[in-house]
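Notes to self, O-antigen ligase-related domain-containing protein:
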Amino acid sequence: MTADAETLPPQASTTAPVPGPARTALWAAPVLCVATVVLALWSTYRDGGYFADDVAAVTTLTLVACGVGLLVVGPSWRPTRGALVCVGAAVGLTLWTALSASWSPDPEGATLAARRDLGYAAFLLLALLGVGNGRRAALLVQLVVLLLVGVCVVALLSRLRPSLFDVDPQLLQVSQGRLAFPVGYWNGLGAVAAMAVMGCLGLAADAREHPAVRAAGAAGGTIAGCVLYLTISRGAGLALAAALVVVLVLSPRRVRLAVSGVLMLATVTAGVLVLSADRILVDEPGTLAAQEDAGRPVLVALLAIALGAALVQLALTRVSALNRTHRHVSHYSPRSRAATGYAVCAGLVVVLLVGVYATSADTLEGQAANGTFGVRGFVDRQYDAFMDTSKPPPVGTERLASARSSRSEAYEVAINGFQANPLAGDGAAGYEVRWYRERTVPESFRNAHSLELETASELGLVGLLLLGAMLAPLVGGMRGLRRATGGLTRSQAAAAGGVLTVWLVHSALDWDWQLGSVTLPALACGAAMLARGQRQPAASTAGMVARRRHTGS
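result:
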């Protein structure tokens, strides 16, 4: 670029007409983002999008939306290399799954699995078309968080005011009181709630968001945390903890995230205390009428707690804004302000610990008296319980203190399948046949309860490589937590990365990655982090410097 061109006034570069395809993409991209979230919402209220008819419908609608999106946005779309690799690997995994029907013991099940994979690949492409070059990435993340919180609100109301919804009483008995509506699977709803918490945390901690959005994030995270408790999902709780650690380690906005996070933990603890006071709302199946009577006062209390979380977040936002405004006259150094923030976090942690002790004092004191409170002893006991499949797992909230389940044997059967056919596997949907042939416990498992292990067992090394090629760009997109690489702020990237991390961890522990209500929001957030972003080239930056010098500014 010549010196004369670099010194052109700013308006000279803004008067150029916008090309027709680019102008069309400006209005089409938000529509595609909305369509993406609508598909995820529709899948949620169709039993999580799990059964064959629902999978076929979602896949068909997504393919149609992708076709329209490619026609409208395609000419101006410039995907990143990671986005192309991710979509290409997803398509390759779909083709390999479909091909495995030729050697699978369940060809019909393999065809269903291929159709589901095709729907996921098309949905990922649709989300990438919606975010475009990063301009609408923030919009997509906000819509996804709104969707997740909306599902949690409906779930909570279905427990506290079941007369408002068509809740199947049989579902309450099958789940042994664990909250499952509207997803249809308690652990799936737990994953949705954990993703909602992480999404709300990122938005609540974003200094660039409108104060009302940050307050709504704090309130929504409180509601989602209470829903997570009602699902009594150990895997979802573990996935949430892992996502919190990942986001706090990677994000340079960790102080803001920690303050908003501890506030959210404190209000969730208060909500759990209210819920746990009446066991019929938690883990003692009762009639819907009994839940209605018990839920009315609890609903009022939880709304008050959520409102309190919003008001405290508003106050913190106001204090932070005043601090930035008067920073030039502040007598406190940045280190002192950071120390104050950590002190606030420590105080809120104390509040949280007091709440936990109030709910579990007898258990904790009993373990201490018996000499079983040590960390090493606890880990050893949980490992032994996880590996011992001779006893049934506990029920109700007692599950939260035990790792006992039949998952260890499910994982062992999946490993056996991979060892028997390491290259191509047993074929999609072949795990169920192997399970009934090798099981030693009287439980009916259709899936290996682990995406990676089931892929290895059914699709072999080829399937694992394709799955890894699909997931690697999504994980790589989380570098946006450390620096602005796309159309998201760091806090928005923390929201999207938190949602994706919950899915990555939980899909390794359960089978609900086959639920569209769980996987589609995670894929949308992954697409938002894969966006290229709206960056000016170096020449434009040099031109801006030259213009400042030319104008004397």
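- The chain has 20 helices and no strands.
- The radius of gyration is 25 Å.
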